[in-house]
Amino acid sequence: MPELPEVEAMRGLLERHCVGCKVLRVISLEAGGGPLDGKFDSKVIGEGVGPQQLEAALLRRPVLAARRRGKHLWLELGGQGPQLLFHCGMTGALAIDGVERFSFQSFRVDEAWPPRFTKLQLELGGRGQEPTRLAFADPRRFGKVLLRQNAAEEPPVSLLGPDPLASPFPLEAFAEQLRRSAAPVKALLLDQEKAVCGVGNWVADEVLREARVHPAAPARTLSDGQLAALHRGVLSVLKRAVAVDADAARFPKNWLFHCRWGQGPSGAGVCLPDGSEVAFEDVGGRTTAYVPALQRPGERPAGAGEAASKPRPAGRAARKRPAAAGSPEQAEAMKRPAAAAARFRVPLRGAPAAAVDLA
User: Fold this and answer.
1) CATH number at residue 284
2) Annotated region Disordered: where (predicted)?
3) Is there a catalytic annotation at residue 310?
């Protein structure tokens, strides 16, 4: 699936070749020789919009800007009418006739024009040269082409979490989202509506490796230091991938990206260039690559922060906090009768260790 770096590369393609042009022609019947050739794909071009509606909404309107949030991107069009929103799903991609195609790890947009499985074509002009031809192709049909009056303020874009590169991404807000959940930290990174958007399977694995955090660690067990390392990792991995237009051949050689594909949960004998062994597990339903010798479980002390996360009932007096282990108050209690010691929830001498409860 195209993730934030790949979608940002597509946004750049639209900005370079389409912004400043006007929509001259709209072709919404599938082309390129796929099984639905000559038909309108209402699964991809969704929400009941038909060929005539799509043409009426887009024709003769200028392209003012190409925008992105997370894995969604859209064309902001001038005049009256909606904006054109794309989501690539698993195998969707944009292509410009005469421009080198995007090549992703799991699929490549073919060089023919129009590419196979093309769902929508736009012909654009107005720059004083040959018209620009744009296509959206999607072999597996999990992508979407939608019309939105204000894409940024309407679902699905309005439901997304913060975009690390296109919107404010403060550490504290990110950390607070993770502290609230017992789900595996990787699952939280993949949830597009929570702590962050735009992170997919391969980006999440690179972030977790860089932060040295085990992907299956419950999010709320991470220490403040681990949360800060994750936040830095999100920004670092995304910025480096975007800086090379998501060209995998130019990714750092020590990234998991280069050895993760086709391994499955039983992958064995895979190592990074420095010799570190790479393991593969299923985490949150996704094949996950990680380095066991490097990535650690959560380091947050048991019970840390739990009291602060539970608001006290209104009008009820605050209960006295238990004395800290080793404090003078607790030492004095140990000299008192068992009932006094029990008040501090400290076991009598000789009691099994499991009886200790300082929660």
Assistant:
1) 1.10.8.50
2) 295-339
3) no
Placement of tokens 């990714």 in the chain: 251
Active site residue 281: no
**What are φ and ψ of residue 5, in 5° steps?**
-60, -40
Q: Do 230 and 112 share a structural domain? A: no
Residue 283 DSSP SS3 = strand
CATH code of 22's domain: 3.20.190.10
How large is the greatest C-alpha to C-alpha distance in the chain, in angstroms?
94
Mean pLDDT of the chain: 85
> Residue 91 domain-assigned?
yes
Which two structure tokens, joined as six digits, stand for 140? 């597996």
Same domain, 127 and 16: yes
Q: Which residue among the candidates 5, 6, 22, 71 is catalytic per the annotation?
A: 71
H or E stretch covering 232:
helix 224-243
CB 66 within 8 A of CB 73: yes
- Residues 154, 210, single domain; the answer is no
Helices (H), 27-92: 51-58
Mind listing the pLDDT tens digit for each residue in 259-314? 987 665 555 689 999 999 999 999 989 999 999 999 999 999 766 655 434 444 44
3-state secondary structure of 111: coil
Domain-ending residue, one of 250, 270, 290: 290
Q: Provide the domain count of the chain.
A: 2
- Write down the pTM of the prediction: 0.82
Of these residues, 2, 114, 162, 184, which one is catalytic? Answer: 2
Residues 250, 207 share a domain: yes
